[in-house]
Design goal:
178 residues; 3-stranded antiparallel sheet; 7 helices; elongated; MarR family winged helix-turn-helix transcriptional regulator; HTH_MarR-typ; MarR/SlyA-like; WH-like_DNA-bd_sf
Length: 178
């Protein structure tokens, strides 16, 4: 087993990805595996963040996908209503998946489904008063949770990371919805 590499030059402790990179360096010294460090850290960070977000939503009796639908309706502004097609596109799920999600949220009394009076074939999804209350309450806890999860980074470092991630996402084909 090769001796572990020294602590990174930035003075931070070594993480699990450092150990994997050490193994690759020993197994394939001819190959620059530095990209694995970035992608591996993004992947691990994503999993850890998703777990922490899921735990916070569970404290409020919600699944992450439920909050996503509720937050999308809240962001739409008063009257917090979207047609099913727009909600499906914003949530990036199929219409069948959205139907199931809306059914569950209707069952919880957080949204209601109605027919658009100006277009009878269009279904409208609206936050109920309880849905509006719950979404605002969970939103405040969610933002506080995300702030705590990023507390190890200064404001400048968070801004720098956000910019780098935006650049990466754009290069991978992610674009803002029109």
């Amino acid at each position: 087993m090769p001796e572990p590499a020294p602590a990174p030059a930035d003075g931070l402790a070594r993480d699990g990805v450092d150990a994997i990179l050490d193994q690759w360096k020993a197994a394939r010294p001819d190959l620059d595996c530095a990209p694995m460090g970035i992608v591996g850290r993004l992947s691990r960070a994503s999993r850890l963040l998703e777990r922490a977000l899921k735990d916070e939503f569970a404290r409020h009796g919600l699944e992450p996908w439920e909050f996503d639908v509720l937050a999308t309706l809240l962001r739409s502004g008063p009257p917090h209503t979207l047609c099913a097609g727009d909600l499906s596109a914003a949530a990036m799920v199929s219409s069948a998946a959205l139907t199931n999600r809306v059914d569950r949220l209707v069952g919880k009394g957080l949204v209601e489904r109605g027919v658009d009076p100006t277009h009878r074939r269009r279904v409208l999804i609206t936050l109920t008063d309880e849905g509006l209350r719950v979404t605002n309450e969970v939103l405040e806890a969610h933002v506080a949770n995300e702030r705590a999860l990023l507390a190890a980074l200064s404001g400048d470092r968070r801004d720098q990371l956000a910019g780098l991630l935006r650049e990466l996402l754009l290069s991978l084909g992610d674009t803002a919805p029109e």
